[in-house]
Amino acid sequence: DIQMTQSPPSLSASVGDRVTITCRASQRISTYLNWYQHKPGKAPKLLIYAASSLHSGVPSRFSGSGSGTDFTVTISSLQPEDFATYYCQQTYSHPHTFGQGTKLEIK
Amino acid sequence: QLQLQESGPGLVKPSETLSLTCLVSGGLIISSSYYWGWIRQTPGKGPEWIGSISYGGSTHYNPSLTSRVTISVDTSKNQFSLKLTSVTAADTAVYYCARRGEQWIVNEAFDIWGQGTMVAVSS
Question: Has residue A48 got a pLDDT over 90?
């Protein structure tokens, strides 16, 4: 299985900050990388697919980049509704493994 | 808009079979552009991909679960189901159903999720 490692595990930031979360794959996965946002008690939401494509309805302050083994998701100016846990997922090969998550908390 | 809703027992005894159903509403499960999947998550860990199925019955399973898992689809009821046999406490988790778009649509990502249902394995 391809292992996905996210960093940092948690992050404290303030409204208006620029934040970047990193995801590293244990082998090269081209751009077969997706990002999700998850709030407690809610259904997870797809943010970015294919490493850099913004899913429909996702605000433009979210952006993704990377290819091969190293990927990032950036929030350009944090809004109160962005505090959540973020997960990456590879879809290069089955099983489509997820990272362990990055919890974004209010400072 | 399309919605998914999981249902099933919240408590299952060890060694028994966990059975969950996902009802798809607001759209048809019959689509060549999508698969339908199950994901689970235990507290403090990342989600675990369980498997997925097409409306025609083509399946992909996580190798770590393949000996115990069956995903099936019922197009007449617009729903799909998960069965996990011989459960243990390690199978206690929140179980989500989700729609998976084809690679050319959303890179095989899960683009619509259910709210999730907690299943505990305990005697």
Answer: yes
